[in-house]
Amino acid sequence: QVQLVESGGGLVQAGESLRLSCAASGSISSTNTMAWYRQAPGRQRELVAMISSVGLIDYAEFVEGRFTISRDNAKNAVYLQMNRLKPDDTAVYYCNIYMWSPGPSTYWGQGTQVTVSS
To answer: Distance between alpha carbon 98 and the CA centroid of its chain, in Å?
Structure first.
């Protein structure tokens, strides 16, 4: 089993920044991908950014260079630095880990609320 705990959400004004953190614990394979997803009210959950254990990174188009994902493999942690936040970024942000060994498995955190006021 794997547990993911997010932190760092909150209420900010448009243009401000937030840094989300996620710490993973439990049976974690060294080969994995960690990611941030978000879900706004009435919308489907969507990928924000992902980073593999070897540092390959991908961002959703709506990030537009405003967010930076990073990880600390020694701590099994992933971070999301969000700058120039917009009201449209308001959502619950979820941490995710996907592992291939010993078999494919994925785990989710409980989510952290990010609210951006205009």
So the answer is: 12
Q: Please give, one letter per residue, the 3-state secondary structure of the chain.
A: CEEEEEECCEEEECCCCEEEEEEEEECCCCCEEEEEEEECCCCCCEEEEEEECCCCEEECHHHCCCEEEEEECCCCEEEEEECCCCHHHCEEEEEEEEECCCCCEEEECCCEEEEEEC
- The pLDDT of residue 21 is 98
- The model's confidence at residue 101, banded by pLDDT at 50, 70 and 90, is confident
Asked whether the predicted pLDDT for residue 59 surpasses 80, the reply is: yes
Instruction: Give the pLDDT confidence of 14-33 residue by residue, as tens digits.
Output: 999 999 999 999 999 889 99
Instruction: Report the distance separating Cα 99 and Cα 34, nearest Å.
Output: 9
pLDDT at 23: 97
Distance separating alpha carbons of residues 54 and 73, to the nearest angstrom: 9
Q: Please give the Cα distance from 107 to 50 (Å, whole number).
A: 14
